[in-house]
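Backbone-to-sequence.
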């Protein structure tokens, strides 16, 4: 589109055409007038041209006097002519700019804004919600807040994500319900439950919000590969077995990206991912991931039973799980998925796991075993160095310990940033 037209559209919007444009544009309008003129014969009277006047008065201008033209009269300023064309031009210009900037993104909120302006100006049909034939003018910030309240089913959690307070969020939702004229949610001490109206609204709002996020991600990719942040959570086994080497490759390929790593247990990492704190999680099975979380196996691994120098004699024979009851055990904490895994392993053989000492992570577990505080299970890769130095000793079991996996987990509901997408590509690349 020509810069001259953009300048002209701007002056149409402000209802003020500069002298440099006014005469030439009015001449153009007079030429267009002849195209729109329609002639008709009424009861044998002479044919009269019906004028379609497009009035673009400057600010404060009075009526246009055309009395010097035969068959003409003084035409009062139109209340709709210039404003109508202004609205049409603004609508077209807005759609042209937005659809070129965000080609494949359904910018619902942007189109709402432009259409509503056009509708309020010339009385054309609108996409805004109506109640009883009256247009409902809703602050679109309320819809953004409603999205997070409906997503987390909790005012406090939504306030945390939005960095606001629970009373503010509650007040905004009350305002939204009042403006829409219906109840969207039922409040309780345990959170909120969407009503039928709330479910219908959320289906549209969530689509719009997710499309806008995709648009932002697409635009962000145009800024190049010089900046970006990715937040990732991992447990010790995943960090040492997979993540560290992959992060080294990632940093070499994209030195401009910032990496934030959080050391979590598997349940903590999954919870942070669901809360939107993390972009990705790399953890060990079992993960306990829900349906909306995508779980991608990266690498299988096995664990072995080991003991310190005090229990070196046990490495000379094969033991059963039942015999382990006579020896002290150290394990991961009860709330971890590793404890859950071994608790089920013992239960399948009619036994119960009762460790004397619990550790928060694998880094703490290895020193405890070295210090002869008990027998414990470790990933073979992590125990390899200590085994080679005879700091710990491998104890053979009659029962086979099931294979486990290191997995990548991502939230399918949330679009990934450019940095997170690139890290995912590297993590999924076979070594």
């Amino acid at each position: 589109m020509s810069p001259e037209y953009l300048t002209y559209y701007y002056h149409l919007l402000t209802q003020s055409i500069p002298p440099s444009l006014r005469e030439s544009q009015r001449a153009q309008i007079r030429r267009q007038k002849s195209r729109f003129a329609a002639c008709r014969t009424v009861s044998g009277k002479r044919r009269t041209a019906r004028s379609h006047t497009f009035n673009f008065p400057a600010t404060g201008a009075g009526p246009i006097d055309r009395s010097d033209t035969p068959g003409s009269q003084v035409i009062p300023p139109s209340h709709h002519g210039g404003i109508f064309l202004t609205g049409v031009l603004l609508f077209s210009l807005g759609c042209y700019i937005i659809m070129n900037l965000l080609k494949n993104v359904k910018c619902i909120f942007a189109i709402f804004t432009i259409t509503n302006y056009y509708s309020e100006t010339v009385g054309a049909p609108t996409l805004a919600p109506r109640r009883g034939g009256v247009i409902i003018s809703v602050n679109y910030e309320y819809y953004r807040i409603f999205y997070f309240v409906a997503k987390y089913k909790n005012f406090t959690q939504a306030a945390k994500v939005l960095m606001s307070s629970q009373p503010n969020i509650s007040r905004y939702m009350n305002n939204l319900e009042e403006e829409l004229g219906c109840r969207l949610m039922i409040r309780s001490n345990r959170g909120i439950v969407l009503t039928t109206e709330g479910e219908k609204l959320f289906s549209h709002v969530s689509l719009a919000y997710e499309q806008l996020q995709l648009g932002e991600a697409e635009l962000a990719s145009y800024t190049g590969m010089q900046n970006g942040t990715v937040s990732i959570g991992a447990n010790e086994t995943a960090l040492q077995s997979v993540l560290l080497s992959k992060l080294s490759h990632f940093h070499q390929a994209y030195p401009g990206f910032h990496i934030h790593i959080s050391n979590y247990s598997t349940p903590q990492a999954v919870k942070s991912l669901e809360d939107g704190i993390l972009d990705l999680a790399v953890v060990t099975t079992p993960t306990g991931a829900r349906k909306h979380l995508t779980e991608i196996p990266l690498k299988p691994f096995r664990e072995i039973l080991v003991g310190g120098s005090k229990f070196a004699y046990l490495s000379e024979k094969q033991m059963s799980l039942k015999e382990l009851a006579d020896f002290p055990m150290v394990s991961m904490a009860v709330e971890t998925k590793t404890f859950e895994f071994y608790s089920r392993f013992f239960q399948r053989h009619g036994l119960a796991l009762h460790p004397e000492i619990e550790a928060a992570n694998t880094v703490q577990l290895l020193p405890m075993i070295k210090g002869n505080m008990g027998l414990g299970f470790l990933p073979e890769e992590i125990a390899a160095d200590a085994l080679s130095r005879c700091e710990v000793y491998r104890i053979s079991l009659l029962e086979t310990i099931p294979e486990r996996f290191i997995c990548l987990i991502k939230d399918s509901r949330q679009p990934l940033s450019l940095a997170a997408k690139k890290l995912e590509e590297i993590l999924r690349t076979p070594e």
